[in-house]
Amino acid sequence: MSYEHLDRINSPSDLRALPEENITALIDEVRAFLIDRVGESGGHLASNLGAVELSVAIHRIFDSPTDHIIFDVGHQAYVHKLLTGRREHFDTLRTPGGLSGFTSMRESEHDAFGAGHSSTSVSAALGYAESDRLLGRDSYTVCVIGDGAYTGGMVHEAINNCKPEHKLIIILNENGMSISKNRGAFARYLSGVRTSRGYRGFKQRTIRFLSATPLGKPIAAFLSFVKNSLKRLLFRPNYFEELGMYYIGPVDGNDYKKTARALMLAKENGACTIVHLKTKKGKGHAEAESAPEAFHSVGSEGKRESFHSVMTETLISEAERNKKIVAVTAAMGVGTGLEAFGERYPERYFDVGIAEEHALTFSAGLAAGGLVPAVAIYSTFLQRAYDSIVHDVALQNLPVRIFVDRAGLAVRDGATHHGIFDVSFLGHIPGIEIFSPATYSALRASVKYALCSAGPVAVRYPNAQESASVCERLNTPTGGELSPRSDFDINNPPKCVFVTYGTIAERVLLAEDELREGGCSVGTLLLLRIRPVAEAARIIADLIRRGSRVVFVEEGIRNGGAAMLTEHALLSLGVPLSRGEYRIAAIDDSFAQPSEPCDIYDFVGLSKEKLKRYFLDEHN
User: From CA 558, how far away is CA 579, in angstroms rounded?
Assistant: First the structure.
């Protein structure tokens, strides 16, 4: 499909050269492009449809990359990508080595700061603005943040450090309800005054005149005091202006002319300014407008049973018997499946917003208070709560149950969302047990165990369905219900043994099958409990002593991972590992971030073919 205007936009300068009378047509073309391409390939649709006018206005008024454009999270930056020369590569969006689904400094000079996690934009933008001030650069920094991301504590920490002299423009893109409820009548009052050029010009001329007049400064200060006193008496205090920032809005962010006018006023102001826009998620797409949450990320195959749905079902079932069980999430009730728990037990469900650190310490307090907290957080977001896990949970040995969703490689979302570090950073914290089930039955057993534990437990699982082959071949425990499983006689092991955990087991079994077809004596040992490592180390030590060569396959970072912890345990048991009896197949200290399209598992060395080489290479 061809687009008359969009097809000629290959850079922001092309956009600025477009006649004003063609902007409305361009906006319509951008929406049509998004509905066509994203609807087909998948991605964040509703948020981008709502951000078309503001993205066009930003690039018409500001000069990227001289001016720094930063999007919080980045899932509303697709229009920005289209306007900065990446239209022809859009078919690679959210594929390994293709265009990122978020912003990426590696991808374009127009992406001033990489994103993927929420609530980082204002801090990064403030860093740019302060750098420009100290280095004497005459650049603007424009930061786009949604009202959802605004619930993150980092945003308020950054705003607390903003100064009036920073050439920083924070666009607060409200496409939900949280900001408008908080601001109410005062925001409506400001919208009629602060967007007026006449008002702003009169105010600035009056201040300049009084400042140059004898006794003028005291008069100006008195008038300001009277004005602010009347505002506080008649209206709710404006949080931003109380901190010394200018405020413009709220403005209809889906009206291009009003949005461009507000941004131009902010630019002319030359000081730290908040521009409050109100946009409609899914704008221009009837179904997405009526159900924006369903169209936030499109391209899924619909609701199917998955690890997080099984976790939630088990949690709900156990909560029927134990009234002390409560559930906690950090703005990911839908993504983690915990929203279903909230529908069943609303008084025992807590969505704390984008505040993972608070979620863990809050859960620690719940546990100390006698409740049974289950907190579900994506692996990639759990990183943000590390100090809370160490200081507030583990140090006090509080029984917080951490359900680590989206564990393993995130094929679509890429490096910002890979869940490959949690085993490494949790595995070094004393007292935490870690489970990584590869089947639904093992997950149910892990959840039940965790809910009865007297100390902290982490249960990690992927965004996937269980594998039929893993269930069929590796679902019989070697001992108790939580013991490792194998597809061979543990007392008469094969010459070659894969040891693994989690759903990478499916790829391991494929490699095993082809090795067997080639005449290799091989089997697989599947772990469920990966910390403490004592039980697994004892079994592996026995395998090595019986003459088996072991390859520990891990869909996680090598350094400090389960395989390395197990290796240390084997050495402490006196197992000789000098002749390659024990090898590790894991992600070698990288962010698993390919620069060209590829199979991500092959890229990190965990594809079927590369796993086979550990036993086929005669030099190993």
Answer: 20
Domains of the chain: 6-196+244-290 (3.40.50.970), 307-460 (3.40.50.970), 468-616 (3.40.50.920)
Round to whole Å and give the CA distance between 543 and 526.
Answer: 14
Eight-class DSSP state of 477: B
Distance from C-alpha of 460 to C-alpha of 215, rounded to nearest angstrom: 68
Residue 495 falls in the annotated catalytic set: no
Q: Which whole-number Å values give the CA distances from 276 to 50, 75, 273, 551, 580, in the listed order?
A: 14, 19, 10, 55, 61
Residue 422 amino acid letter: D
Structure confidence at residue 602 (pLDDT):
96
Taking Cα atoms as reference points, which of 52, 68, 50, 49 lies closest to residue 5? Answer: 52
Catalytic member of 29, 174, 318, 356 = 356
Q: Which of 94, 278, 384, 549 is catalytic?
A: 384
Q: DSSP code of 298?
A: B
**Is the Cβ–Cβ distance between 154 and 384 less than 8 Å?**
no
Query: Which pair of structure tokens corresponds to residue 213?
Result: 């007049």
How many angstroms separate the Cα of 112 from the Cα of each of 81, 141, 203, 464?
12, 9, 34, 33
Q: Which region holds residue 302: left if phi is over 0, alpha if psi is between -120 and 50, else beta?
A: left
Instruction: Confirm if 579 and 547 have CB atoms less than 8 A apart.
Output: no
For residues 91 and 481, give the distance between their C-alpha atoms in angstroms, rounded to a whole number.
Answer: 46
Show the DSSP H helices in 165-274 as ranges. 178-193, 197-211, 216-234, 239-242, 256-269
pLDDT category at 216 given cuts 50, 70, 90 is low
**For residue 180, what are its two tokens?**
């408008």
pLDDT tens digit sequence for 115-124: 999 999 999 9
Among the residues of 243-290, which ranges form H helices? 256-269, 286-290
321 part of the active site: no
pLDDT tens digits, 283-294: 766 565 555 555
Amino acid at 32: A
Q: 246 has which bridge partners?
A: 273
Q: Which residue has the tokens 């619930």?
A: 151
Q: Dihedral, CA atoms, 220, 221, 226, 231, nearest 10 degrees?
A: 100
Tell me the C-alpha distance between 499 and 266, whole Å: 59
CA distance 225 to 543: 80
The residues pairing with 388 across neighbouring beta strands, listed in sequence order, are none
Catalytic residue among 194, 281, 401, 473: 281
Contact 428, 450 (CB under 8 A): no
**Over pLDDT 70: what percentage of the chain?**
86
What is the per-residue DSSP string for 441-472? HHHHHHHHHHHH-SS-EEEE--SSPPPHHHHH
Give dist(CA 388, CA 395) in Å, integer. Answer: 10
Q: How far is CA 612 from CA 17, 104, 515, 520, 553, in A?
A: 56, 34, 7, 10, 11
268 vs 48: CA distance, rounded Å: 27
- Are 419 and 408 in contact by the 8 Å Cβ rule? The answer is yes
612 labelled catalytic: no
Task: List C-alpha distances in Å: 294 to 46, 302, 306, 428.
Answer: 9, 10, 18, 39
For the stretch 594-610, pLDDT in tens is: 989 999 999 999 999 99
What is the rounded distance in angstroms from the CA atom of residue 596 to the CA atom of residue 599? 10
Cα dihedral 8, 14, 17, 20 sign: positive
Residue 521 CA neighbour count, 13 Å, CB half: 8
